[in-house]
Amino acid sequence: MNSSLSLTLDAFYTDTKVTFDSTLKNDQFYLNEQLQDELATQKVSRFLDLVREKAAISTSAIIHSTNHVPTAAGLASSASGLAALAGASSQACDLNLTPTELSRLARRGSGSASRSIFGGFVEWQMGDSDETSYAVPVDDANWDLAMLIVVVNKHEKAVSSRVGMKRTVETSPFYPGWLETTPLDLAEMKQAIQEHDFQKVGEITERNGLKMHGTMLGANPPFSYWESDSIKAMQLVRELRHAGLQCYFTMDAGPNVKVLCKKSELSLVKARFSQLFKEEQLISAGVGPGIRLL
Ligand code: ATP
Fold this sequence. Notes:
Number of helices: 8
Radius of gyration: 19 Å
Bound molecules: adenosine-5'-triphosphate
CATH topology of the largest domain: Alpha-Beta Plaits
């Protein structure tokens, strides 16, 4: 429905290994060393079916995946996990896909995974098919940028991104407003990135994030991912800004708050957050690279 932009982070990633094995009767999926139930395995199998079709094989696989990111907590585990699964599974059957082809494949598993194939700032182009909708790198983001992630709650969220998005698209009267204005935000953002204009990048990040959360409040039934600590974190960002530190917040579909700041000011920002949040709730991240074959 709309194009979108992400910043790949080095602190959150997934290691995935896929082995096709003709002695297996079914796919076996281990996530963080735990054998997964039928439902979770089915999701992965459906994705592997796409890869099997491309490779013209019907062999089952054993998948070992480790998320260095909390799963299903609004910290983009599906983006990281499905990008890794696309890379590992296509490589395991020698498909030798280009990064663009990989992005198209990853999108079939999770839209946001199309972006996580690449490092830095990445745009996922809107569209309704593999021909039109895939991600393209925008900028390596190799300038004074960092992110502090405030983990308010790392448990699985009650409303998954997929369910929440569907409900918002179908019922929120604010959704058309989002669709109308997001292309303008994106165009302005790409300009600001090109100019390395941190303040502009931050301002667009914050207002676009809040606008997305606004659409959910208009859904029927309405829902919100915010918790009281999310609001506390947002408020602190505003206070820090007032005190002269350049930082801006954004939130994905979850209660956790991401603070975009300058790499050179990250330790100062973190020190202020340490006064309100526990050490284990604060994760520092830099700009991350794209997918890598280990
Ligand atoms: P958000 O997209 O809002 O940032 P999230 O990605 O953590 O949050 P969901 O969009 O609900 O949460 O997606 C979580 C789902 O992604 C999991 O239930 C699982 O199906 C899939 N997933 C997560 N990690 C992996 C992985 N390593 N391998 C395969 N699938 C994964």
